[in-house]
Amino acid sequence: MDFLKKAKEINKELIYIRRDFHKNPEVDFNLNRTVKKVKEFLEKEGIEYIQTSKNGICGIIRGKGDKTIGIRADMDALPMKDKKSCEYSSKVEGKMHACGHDVHTTILLGAAKILNSIKGELKGNVKLFFEPAEETTGGAAHMIEEGVLDNPKVDAIIGLHVEPNIEAGKIGIKRDVVNAASNPFNIKIIGKGGHGAYPHSTIDPVVISANVITALQDIVSREIPPTDPAVITIGSIHGGTAQNIIPDEVEIYGIMRTMTAEHREYVKRRLVEVVEGITHAMRGKCEINIEESYPCLYNDDNMVEILKDAAELTIRKENVIMLQKPNMGVESFAYFSMERPSAFYYLGIRNEKKGIVHPLHSNLFDVDEESIPVGVAIHCETVAKYLNMV
C-alpha cells in the first residue's frame, strides 16, 4: 500500500483535528477536552481503548498474529502565551502547544485510522499510546506501571517528535543514545549568619555556595571524558535579605544531564561528595536532594533499521538524515525505550517560505502541516514492515 498517498487523502481531516487541538491546549494531566476528542475519534473508527494514567489512553488494533508493536504520542501543551497571529492560535490564555504535541497526537490518530482500515492484513497488533504530562512528570512511567505494555505484550515501540531544524518532508534518525537523562537537584547550604562587617564571627553560606558552584563544574570538565556529553546547570540561587547581612542559609537549584546510566550514577555520587566535602571543610552543613527524572532514550539498532527502511520507501533515501549527535534535552519516550526495543525519530516541520522557523517552546512556534502525512505514512510503513504485512 502507498501509505503516503493514503495519508494525504485524509490530511484535510487531520489538519482540522490538529488545529482544534492547537486552539484548545491543555497541560499536565489536565487533558479532559483533549482526551474526549481522542476517544470520540477512536470510537468513530471502531478502535477499542482503555483510559490509563489519569488522562492517558491506550488503544489497540487487533490484527491476525501474536506480535504487537506500539506507537506513542504525547498530548499535553505548555504553560505559555501563544503570540502567533493566525486563525488557530490558542484560545486559552497562558497555554500553548509550543512543542508540537498537538501534531504528535494528530499523526497517531491518522495512523490509527489507516492501520485499522487494513487490520485484516496485519500479522499482529498495534497498540496506541496517548501520553499525558510529558512536559512535567512523564505520563509514560505511569502508563507502564499500570500495564499498558502487557495484554497483549508489546514487543517494540516507535515514536516521533517534530523538529524545526529539519525541513518539512525530511526526518532525522539517531542510532544508540538519542536523548539525555536528567536529575533535578536542590542543595541547602547552612551556615551561621551575622553582620557583614564582622564576617569572622559567621559561617558564610554565600561564600560556601560560591565554592560549591565552581567546583561542581569540575565534575564535568575534569572527571567525565570530553568525548561524552554531560551538563550540570545551576539555574537558581537564593540567600540573604540585605547587603550587610550574612544569611544563615542559601538554597541552590539545578539540574544534571547525562548520556549513559554509568555517568548518571557517577555524577550523582560526585555531586554529593563535592558538596559535602566543601561545605564541611568550610565549617558549614548541607542538605542535598537529587530527584530521579527521565532516563536516557536509547534507539534499538534493529528497530532503527526497520524504521529507516520504511522511511526511505516513503520519502526516499535522500530525505532520511542520519543524525550524529545526541540531544541534551529529555524525552519521556525514554521510559518506553528502557522497557522494549524502540525507535524514535525527528519529523521535519521547517518551511522558511511560510515563515515556519521558530524553535520549540517559542511563543511563535508553528509547523508546516504538510509534514503531518509524512509522519502518518512513516508510522504506518514501519508498523507494516515490523508485522510482516503481506
From TrEMBL:
Cofactor: binding comment: The Mn(2+) ion enhances activity.
Keywords, comma-separated and alphabetical: Hydrolase, Manganese, Metal-binding
A Pfam family reported for this protein in Swiss-Prot or TrEMBL: Peptidase_M20
Entries under InterPro entries matching the protein: Amidohydrolase, Bact_exopeptidase_dim_dom, Peptidase_M20, Peptidase_M20_dimer
CDD domains per UniProt: M20_Acy1
Binding, Mn(2+): 99, 101, 135, 161, 361
GO biological process: diaminopimelate biosynthetic process
Cofactor requirement: Mn(2+)
Gene Ontology molecular functions: metal ion binding; N-acetyldiaminopimelate deacetylase activity
Keyword set includes Metal-binding: yes
Keyword Zinc recorded: no
Domain Peptidase M20 dimerisation: 185-276
Cited PANTHER family: METALLOPEPTIDASE, PUTATIVE (AFU_ORTHOLOGUE AFUA_6G09600)-RELATED, PEPTIDASE M20 FAMILY MEMBER
Protein's recorded name: Amidohydrolase
Species classification: Bacteria, Bacillati, Bacillota, Clostridia, Eubacteriales
